[in-house]
User: Fold these one by one.
Assistant:
Number 1:
Amino acid sequence: MSYQITEQDIDEILNKPGKVRGVVFKTDYRFIVDKFGEGGVKRVEEELERMKCSFSYKDEIDNMSFYPIGMRTISLIAIHKALGIDREGIKEMGMNAPKFSLMIKFFMRHFLSPEKIFEKAGEMWEKHYTVGALKPTEMDLEKRCMKASIYDIELHPILSDYFCGYFSFILKMGVGEDVSVVEEQKESEDGNKYHEFTFTW
């Protein structure tokens, strides 16, 4: 899958309201370095320059500071374009991200059970993003199934794929087994669109 984007799309993405913690870009940086070395980082930053979104992962980003949420999507697209990372690779990025985040490591040390993950997921979203809401909606441990939805934010397909990997890894740590995830865009009774993630193991 190729994540298509135009100059107009870039402008629209960058103008979306909301902020995200810098730690998400540091996890991108760690993934690139582990897979492609510093040369990979240079290629991605050159792609960002071509997209007129100059950005330095190593020098400009502070883990706990907030940055425009649109750069979260732009960063992933630049990585996809510069390094040829396909959809499965983007999911792999999401799965690797919690390993690099001190915030998530702290969370997992204290809430390593599916029940606690279910309970605290929304709180962790709020620590990373100033817009949107992550709400677990259903959990059935006997059927080995959990559902969660993201509301009040429009997700680019590349970010949806990233979250599939990210959430599945965290839940895997809670249930002790590989987790499969399906993401669907849905619409509530009042006409608002949201993203539902269904996890099974």
Note: The chain is about 55% helix and 20% strand.
Number 2:
Amino acid sequence: MAFTTPQGRTATSLSEINVTPLVDVMLVLLIIFMVTAPMLQTGIDVELPETRNVKQISQEERIIVSISREGLYYNSETINWDKLPERLRKDAKGPKDSIFLRIDKDVKWNSIVSVMDKIRGAGFTEIKLITKPMTESQKR
């Protein structure tokens, strides 16, 4: 397809794609993903107690209940205290499944025992505590 300019010359149409807007959009998307990706990967901020003996556990479908100073969490989402047993029964394969507890070291013992009681009340007996290993300077 040809066009005529005001001077009377014939000009052909541009068949190239203008990539400048495409590059602009891609850079904006890249910046958005760079800013939001770290926020999506963070979990609940729990400062775990340190112990000498720590056993590594696999990441395969495990149920983690976290107790922080701010509240109770099921995997990575906030959960109501009363909904915990129902959610455990729904997601677990059976009563022999292990429930892992991540507990902030500053949480009061009464809260920990209450959550463990709720878990046992739901029919689960395998409750395991998650800790982090001590550094070499602390072991001495």
Note: The longest strand covers residues 98-103.
